[in-house]
Amino acid sequence: MPFDLSARLAERRAAHLYRRRPLLDAPQGVRVRVDGEELLAFCNNDYLGLANHPEVIDAFVAGAQRWGVGGGASHLVVGHSAPHHELEEALAVFTRRPRALLMSSGYMANLGTVTALVGQGDTVLEDRLNHASLLDAGLLSGARFSRYLHNDPASLASRLDKATGNTLVVTDGVFSMDGDLANLQALCAQTRQRGGWMMVDDAHGFGCLGAQGGGIVEHYGLGLDDVPVLVGTLGKAFGTAGAFVAGSEELIESLIQFARPYIYTTSQPPAVACATLKSLQLLREEQWRRSHLQQLIKRFRTGAAGLGLQLMDSPTPIQPILVGSSDRALALSAALRERGILVTPIRPPTVPRGTARLRVTLCAAHSEDDVAQLLQALEAALAALPDEEKSHEHH
Ligand SMILES: Cc1ncc(COP(=O)(O)O)c(C=O)c1O
């Protein structure tokens, strides 16, 4: 009997780490039907409310009529179509980089970029709280792989001093499970000083940070020399699907030549690129989405602090409530659900042990009333938890 899968599954269940998939029976949005229940949701990454925007849907439908459905081949064979190309040009303008390359997902963009840039004899240094796709990419690359303390330029500097070969420093722009920003100015300065290259995955910053939604590099005013490798994803604030890498002409040409997850996969449906072109336009032009989101973030943080909840240092729509143990996170999420609110618990190994949390995400499609409803439900849910479940301490 080579595989004892049932023992592995039982172990996961016993540790309160078993995952199940809520079944969504509605378009993505603020009011959804999940597992047969109508719920007010605070857990998707559709930060600007574009996933279900009528103009984005129209662009997608018109794109399918004009270009068909399937990409049909990989980009290097005959799958690179005019909408993909147009989107790449628009993304280069948007990111103020010479070029951009469209990828099928953020996971693949990260895997493809890191593995194309470093290999045996090189070094890859990552924030210890980076997204799983970046950590997997570092391991797969075959380069010497080391993780520095979260957002700590001194910890990065000591590793840079020991680095060999080409050195790639990799960080999330906005940390996906905490919502805090990378300390990019200091990290970039250390990296440049010691001849490394900085790669930023700004999956959660694009659309939300910066006056024009240009993400963390716009927020800090960082150029190509500071961040030569910039990754963004299109399934979050853009509301569609896919990802991109932006940088120099040479970087993009190198990825086309060497990034295996780019080369050996079918291109995304061209209609998705048509939809993304429309959502990019809305994301840039409709500034009110970002300012409304900022209002909601302020309202939530003030209310949650008033309830004594342990928040994180986050100026972004990702507003986790630290709970501690996995069973407490599950209990609080269930208590909210009984009150008509959906907030998913996040448990190890997605976050470090003892830091299970409810990852509240806010979205421009929420109203102030929705946030007030969430706060009321949180107050009632906390009061209803059994005594041992009430502590807000960080275990
Ligand atoms: C920081 C970060 N990078 C990359 C990804 C992966 O992007 P995608 O969903 O497009 O694969 C995610 C989440 O999905 C993320 O949070």
From TrEMBL:
Pfam families attached to this UniProt entry: Aminotran_1_2
Residue stretches making up the Aminotransferase class I/classII large domain: 38-378
Names of required cofactors: pyridoxal 5'-phosphate
Domain of life: Bacteria
Binding site for pyridoxal 5'-phosphate: G106, Y107, S176, H204, T233
N6-(pyridoxal phosphate)lysine sites (modified residues): K236
Keywords tagged on the record: Biotin biosynthesis, Pyridoxal phosphate, Transferase
Substrates-to-products reaction catalysed: 6-carboxyhexanoyl-[ACP] + L-alanine + H(+) = (8S)-8-amino-7-oxononanoate + holo-[ACP] + CO2
Positions with a binding annotation for substrate: R19, H131, T350
EC numbers on record: 2.3.1.47
Enzyme class: transferase
Pathway the protein takes part in: Cofactor biosynthesis; biotin biosynthesis
Function according to Swiss-Prot or TrEMBL: Catalyzes the decarboxylative condensation of pimeloyl-[acyl-carrier protein] and L-alanine to produce 8-amino-7-oxononanoate (AON), [acyl-carrier protein], and carbon dioxide.
Family according to the record: Belongs to the class-II pyridoxal-phosphate-dependent aminotransferase family. BioF subfamily.
Complexes and interactors: Homodimer.
Name the UniProt record assigns to this protein: 8-amino-7-oxononanoate synthase
